[in-house]
């Protein structure tokens, strides 16, 4: 099928584009710069110039394709209201364009804030509702279109989609460790994050767009729970740094923006996802990737 992808040159998007092309699909990627366009061209994808604020372009991209994968996000941590506004407008535009077609609309979801005290499962409904909630309540907004003739699927990504070159949360943790000369965790370090190797996550996205039922929530999770202390200890071994605890009240001072949620528990099960799509995550664990130098 012909798939329109936003965020096509991002960390996850690049892997998803490669996975789709490798499986014989055609891909058009949204590119907001010459560098992004060149990257897509080299991969063998088509190019649609524009960004997430170009709603006419998003609508046309969705209408021209047989499926949409929405991975783009402004990631403007200093302006969450703008992030939320953009996310909702993009979802309403693209999912609205697909209404009545039964075509797939796969979007990136998150595990943060779903539940407390246990790993999240796929049937857990996100409490984020409305434009002022996390990510603008995008998952719930998108799932409303499952009743409007769109095959909506939310892929909830682990907080660590890891691998060599990862620019995300783990890169920020290792940067903080090198800056301060210690690898740190918050409090007792019992908070746990789920994790998944990037190629495995990309494979799940492809399986979701190919066959997940409308209204599905699937978890891009390989390891259910890796404690923040285990993460800090792996970084300590990789960079030969001492490992210490940082008091929660000093989290932002030590970790920067990441300190606001490094101590949150973001663990999740993948049992339903594996059964639904026949997905078997593979690749190194998060600790193995850290120790092998993926964040050097």
TrEMBL record:
Coiled coil location: none
Q: What is its EC number?
A: 5.1.3.2
What SUPFAM superfamilies does the record point to? Answer: NAD(P)-binding Rossmann-fold domains
The molecular function terms in GO held by this entry are: aldehyde dehydrogenase (NAD+) activity; UDP-glucose 4-epimerase activity
What keywords sit in the KW lines?
Answer: Isomerase
Q: Name one GO cellular component term.
A: cytoplasm
Q: Which Pfam families match?
A: Epimerase
> What are the NAD-dependent epimerase/dehydratase domain coordinates in residue numbering?
3-211
Quote the InterPro entries the UniProt record gives.
Epimerase_deHydtase (IPR001509), NAD(P)-bd_dom_sf (IPR036291), NAD(P)-dependent_oxidoreduct (IPR051783)
The name under which this protein is listed is UDP-glucose 4-epimerase (EC)
Native organism is Amycolatopsis camponoti
């Amino acid at each position: 099928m012909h798939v329109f992808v936003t965020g096509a040159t991002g960390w996850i998007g690049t892997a998803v584009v490669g996975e789709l092309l490798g499986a014989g699909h055609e891909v058009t990627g949204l590119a907001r710069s010459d560098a992004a366009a060149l990257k897509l061209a080299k991969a063998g994808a088509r190019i649609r110039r524009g960004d997430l604020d170009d709603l006419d372009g998003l609508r046309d991209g969705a209408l021209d394709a047989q499926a949409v994968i929405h991975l783009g996000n402004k990631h403007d941590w200093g302006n969450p209201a703008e992030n939320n506004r953009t996310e909702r407008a993009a979802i309403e535009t693209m999912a609205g364009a697909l209404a009545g077609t039964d075509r797939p609309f796969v979007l990136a979801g998150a595990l943060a804030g779903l539940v407390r005290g246990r790993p999240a499962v796929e049937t857990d409904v996100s409490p984020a509702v409305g434009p002022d909630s996390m990510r603008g309540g995008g998952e719930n907004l998108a799932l409303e279109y499952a009743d409007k003739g769109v095959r909506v699927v939310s892929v909830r990504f682990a907080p660590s989609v890891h691998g060599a070159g990862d620019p995300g949360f783990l890169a920020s943790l290792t940067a903080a460790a090198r800056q301060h000369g210690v690898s740190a965790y918050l409090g007792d370090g019992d908070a746990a994050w789920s994790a998944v190797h990037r190629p495995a996550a990309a494979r799940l996205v492809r399986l979701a767009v190919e066959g997940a039922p409308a209204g599905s929530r699937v978890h891009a999770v390989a390891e259910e729970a890796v404690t923040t202390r285990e993460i800090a200890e792996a970084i300590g071994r990789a960079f030969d740094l001492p490992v210490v605890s940082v008091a929660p009240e000093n989290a932002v001072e030590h970790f920067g923006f990441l300190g606001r949620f490094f101590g949150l528990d973001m663990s999740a099960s993948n049992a339903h996802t594996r059964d639904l799509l026949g997905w078997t995550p593979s690749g190194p664990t998060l600790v193995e990737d850290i120790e092998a130098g993926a964040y050097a």
